[in-house]
Input
Amino acid sequence: MSDSGISVVFRTDDTSRLIPAAAAFCAGGLPIIEFTMTMPDAVSLLERGARELPEGAVLGAGTVLDLSLIHISEPTRPY
Output
């Protein structure tokens, strides 16, 4: 986990470079990443991020406005 106290929040309509951008922040020492659920296909992006972001990344869901999506907050890998 990061000692910086900084988390990176992504909220965008163009998600084509989202995973590489998140990986770049992780590589730069900011491994706490949030994808907002307001983005197109947000659940798939979270699943992809959980698979592709480097070990040590902490990925979370933000702006969860629908209780049916609460399951996405369950950890996908051990910390």
